[in-house]
Amino acid sequence: MSEINAETDAEVKEGDQDDNVTTQSRDYADQHARDQPKDEMTEPKRSAVETIDSLLGEFDDDDSLSGYNYAYLDEHTKREVRRSIIKAISIPGHQVPYASRPMPLARGWGTGGIQASLSLLGPDDTFKVIDQGSDESVNAANIRRLASNTADVETTTDTTNADIIQTRHRIPEEVLTDEQILVLQVPVTDPLRKVDGSDAANRRRHAHRNYGKMWVHLYENVVEWGEINIAARYPTMVAGRYLMDPSPIPRWDVPKLDHADSLFIFAAGREARIYAVPPHTSVEPLAFEDRTFQVERFPGVSCHACGSTDTYLTEVETDDGSVYYSCNDASFCHKRQQNPELDRDHHIKQSIDGWGPGVRDPDSGDTAGDTE
User: Fold this and answer.
1) Which residue in the list 110, 113, 269, 327 is annotated as catalytic?
2) Which residue intervals make up region (Disordered) (predicted)?
């Protein structure tokens, strides 16, 4: 009986303690409510949408990006990218790895190119972005807006006014100068991947300059089609040493890489690789003696807007089934509409030979390069 009475007394004491704790909590809540201002006690709860709108409204346009680094990337990242670019320039055509950072756009839509561009941009630079020849595509407009908002740089659609040009799948028609840098977005960095999916084996081939598999691939292409029928990503030899993927530019643009005055930077964010073609560097497309390299041919057609026959043309099909051709480079096409006799080297003093096929000779009016 004594044990039962002891347990009963313990339960009574625990119940009294719980009542005391509850009473103290209630007293604390009442005291906290009395301490609150009447305005806060009577203020209705705001919805999540109203709260977000009010927070966004507190920021002005000038200081809305005050929490970001200049040109979005932190200084350590930009320093690493610039060092990789310097190494890529020192070894033309060699793929240099770097730590690709997450960017506010999906991988495969120019993350490598925008990292290279933002690492090079300065306050006094002018930036141009094109997507397959167009300045007004959604991807080009978004990248241009990101650079303008975070780096506070001027943007342009005129190729001749730009210091740094980021492009996807095209090289501008107008001749680039030694004061300009062209950054190309690259989806696939290794040209040997189309003949062997092993990156480790392909790296050994690059180290030993063993490109026999690519030559076999070109030979099989000739056997099947009668000519080398590679529309984009045409394999090129840089400085007689490294086989390079020039990104998915058309064959029309490949000759523009050879001994150009400008610097070409190829950046792949998804594969975290950078490679480059320095100015005045030999870039030779692979070909056979009896099957020479040829560019796209547009016999008997011209641009419907400016009448050009020496630019890369895009076939456009209308709703009624009719077909017409237009210049792929929208900026240069607009200039040609203003001046049909405008040359692609109009903005420089000397005449440039070999900037792609069909460059006009200002003296004779003929075109250079084999387009047939």
Assistant:
1) 327
2) 1-47, 338-372
* 167: amino acid identity, one letter: T
Whether pTM > 0.85 for this model: the answer is: no
* Catalytic (active site) residue 327: yes
Total count of domains within the chain? 2
Last residue of a domain, one of 285, 305, 334: 285
Exactly one of 93, 113, 133, 269 is catalytic; name it: 93
Q: How far is it, in rounded angstroms, from Cα 312 to Cα 327?
A: 6
Q: Tell me, what CATH number does 196's domain have?
A: 3.40.50.11310
333 is catalytic: yes
Indicate whether 96 and 171 sit together in one domain: yes
Same domain? 186 vs 321: no
β-strand 164-168 against 154-155: which pairing, if any? unpaired
Domain membership of residue 259 (yes or no) is: yes
Check if 369 is active-site. Answer: no
CA distance 149 to 141: 12
In this structure, are 95 and 158 located in the same domain? yes
Q: Are residues 206 and 83 in the same domain?
A: yes
**Terminus-to-terminus CA distance in the chain, angstroms?**
115
Residue-range definition of the domain harbouring residue 230: 75-285
∠ CA 104-107-109, nearest 5°, is 85
- Beta strand pairing call for 273-277 and 96-97: antiparallel
Structure-token pair, residue 94: 């060699």
The predicted-structure confidence for 257-310, as pLDDT tens digits, reads as follows: 999 999 999 999 999 999 999 999 999 999 999 999 999 989 999 999 999 999
Alpha carbon distances (Å) from 65 to 46, 62, 124, 146, 227: 26, 7, 19, 11, 54
Instruction: Please pick, among 112, 113, 269, 303, the residue that the annotation labels catalytic.
Output: 303
Rounded CA gap, 138 and 364, in Å? 41
pLDDT reported for residue 3:
47
pLDDT tier for residue 366 given thresholds of 50, 70 and 90: very low
- Residue 365 has a CB neighbour count (10 Å cut-off) of 8
Point out the domain boundary residue: 269, 285, 301: 285
**133 is annotated as an active-site residue:** no
